[in-house]
Amino acid sequence: MTDTQRASIILGITGGVAAYKAAELARLWIKAGYSVQAVMTEAATHFIGTATLQALTGKPVLTDLWGSSGSGMDHIHASRQADLIVVAPASADFMAKLVQGRADDLLSTLCLARDCPLLLAPAMNREMWSNPATQRNVAQLVEDGIGMIGPDSGEQACGETGVGRMSEPQAIFEAVESLLHQGPLSGKKVLITAGPTYEPIDPVRGITNLSSGKMGYALAAAAREAGAKVVLVSGPTALATPAGVERLNVTTADEMFEAVMSAVTDADVFFAVAAVADYRPAEIGAQKMKKSEQPLTLNLLPNKDILASVAAMPKAPFCVGFAAETEKLLEYAEAKRKKKKLPMLVANLAQNTLGADQAELIVLDDDGQHPLPAADKLSQARRIISHLSKLLS
Ligand SMILES: Cc1cc2nc3c(=O)[nH]c(=O)nc-3n(C[C@H](O)[C@H](O)[C@H](O)COP(=O)(O)O)c2cc1C
């Protein structure tokens, strides 16, 4: 399972003071685009209200083995729809139950009936944690293939200090991220530029182009799905940042150059998708230029070539260029690939692709041409990532 848009997580909450932290965890997952179903034990409802979790997840909280959704089979259905179950906090009592395979409430039953990974974030008093019974249970659960996150050491709700605090929601979130994103680009950093640049003429006018950013954003989502850490340097667009992607906003080609140069140092792959302006006005008016009857000549200076600069670095990442041409597509695209010494380039006809939701593409590499028949840009992005992964391996 690598699609962050569709990943579905069951958040199990058991009876411990740390139950309040489960609300923050649910919020982080919802923000990242996951679907979250909260399931609480009866004891958990003494610590945090179902209304909080329902409001955060947008779904009724399941608490009852005896058919709270009306189907009477929540223990099977809920776990079948899940890509992962995370119990946070996991009480000492709940872990003991799991070891024995007991199933006397909804959460323990669906853990037993699951066909997906299970992660526990234990939280309890330090003596409860270090008790040999709990330690035996933990060892057994690990042997049974159940993942453990934490617990951490520190000050506890009871006033004592030691090991037993639930890991912070952010740490649990990150552990789940790496579990869900073990794709072909796992462990790789991918830097992507997207969208147009805007070169100001005066405070209200500028030179830009018709790039929407859709292809670059789709590639960012696909690279993230494939497990990469993704940094997206974006010109002005109206698009939402794909879940789990770090986005750096820029306006001009110069700003994009600077952002790329500071983010590229540890990148493994660089996708130059942005439609970077080739020229910028030599002078930018401090005030709005007044209309006149005379012809206007703008003096333009060439911008730095971002892709060529990255490709020429001594330890250059694997560089993938994009060529949008209006004629002689293959001839111009292959010439660009050769000139900039790129191992891979994606060619498309600008008039069919710019701003559109679909794209018909041709990948060029040292082995020749690889046509990608017309499809929506996310599907094309996934094909490009798959092609890249093969070249990298
Ligand atoms: C105020 C209070 C705080 C508790 N905190 C914890 C805790 O942090 N960790 C834990 O394992 N049990 C804790 N317990 C005990 C559990 O709530 C108890 O074992 C309960 O039966 C667990 O039920 P469950 O595992 O079905 O959720 C606490 C009990 C109370 C009354």
Model description:
The chain has 2 domains: 8-180, Rossmann fold; 189-283 and 297-392, 3-Layer(aba) Sandwich (Rossmann fold). Helices cover 34% and strands 25% of the residues. It contains 14 helices and 19 strands. The strands form 5 sheets. Strands 12-11-8-13-16-17-18-19 form an 8-stranded mixed sheet, sandwiched between helices. A 5-stranded parallel sheet has the order 2-1-3-4-5, with helices on both faces. The protein has a two-stranded antiparallel sheet with strand order 6-7. The radius of gyration is 26 Å and the shape is elongated. Mean pLDDT is 91; it is low at 1-5.
Write the layout of secondary structure elements.
Layout: E1 8-13, H1 19-31, E2 35-40, H2 50-57, H3 74-81, E3 84-90, H4 92-100, H5 106-112, E4 118-122, H6 126-130, H7 132-143, E5 147-148, E6 152-155, E7 161-165, H8 169-180, E8 189-194, E9 199-202, E10 205-207, H9 214-225, E11 229-234, E12 246-249, H10 253-263, E13 269-272, E14 279-281, E15 300-302, H11 306-311, E16 318-325, H12 329-339, E17 344-349, H13 350-353, E18 358-365, E19 368-376, H14 377-392
Parallel strand pairs: 1-2, 1-3, 3-4, 4-5, 8-11, 8-13, 11-12, 13-16, 16-17
Antiparallel strand pairs: 6-7, 9-10, 14-15, 17-18, 18-19
Helix pairs in contact: 1-2, 1-8, 3-5, 4-7, 9-14
Bound molecules: flavin mononucleotide.
The site of flavin mononucleotide has 15 residues, from helix 4.
Give a brief rundown of this model.
This protein has helices at 19-31, 50-57, 74-81, 92-100, 106-112, 126-130, 132-143, 169-180, 214-225, 253-263, 306-311, 329-339, 350-353, 377-392; strands at 8-13, 35-40, 84-90, 118-122, 147-148, 152-155, 161-165, 189-194, 199-202, 205-207, 229-234, 246-249, 269-272, 279-281, 300-302, 318-325, 344-349, 358-365, 368-376. The chain is α/β, with parallel strands linked by helices. It has two domains: 8-180, Rossmann fold (3-Layer(aba) Sandwich); 189-283 and 297-392, CoaB-like (Rossmann fold), CATH 3.40.50.
